[in-house]
Design brief:
two-stranded antiparallel sheet, 6 helices, 28% helix, alpha/beta, single chain, 14% strand, globular
Amino acid sequence: SAIYYAVDHGADIINASWGFYSYSSSLGEAIQYARTHGVLFIASAGNKSQDNDVSDHYPSNYPYDNIIAVTAMNRYGDLASFSNYGDETVDIAAPGEGLQTTIPGGGYSSWVSGTSFATPFVSGVVAMIISQSPDLLYSSIRNILLNSTVMDESCPQDLLMSGGCVNAYNALVAEESSDVSSKATTSPTTTETSTASGEGGGGGG
């Protein structure tokens, strides 16, 4: 219901700092609804130290091209020890360990960790891209974001296979994709192929 509400009220980006390990067809349908309206869905990859190519995590593992799955890095530029990763199912990394953040009721919490905290970094960069080029298709924005990451050969393999680190400057100066136009309004066809796996829980380390 929250996804439909956000789309119907003009959201360009949905930040999903939550997740679980069981499949939901209704959640998949909601994300597809966002896709047909040109809305990017940015999801945390999960905190189980697992390869998401092998074991499913949702919503990051749905096979829709409006999803950007985010893994977490530590302060040294390595993949955080708790973070899920994946060559095919995880798209990008962002800081997600030892952070300071706001807490309900006012104030701050120090040393929080989790892919849920990495995901908003990516959502923030996407928001900047949209503010700079508001007529880009969601697919163009996604391409710009993923093609502008920092990929250093010294990085560990599990981080490299998860897309490299988000970089705001690179994304904002990147050349726009060739399919620049108004946001998608048609309903593209998609197929769902996935298997269920158990365990709840999403954000927070």
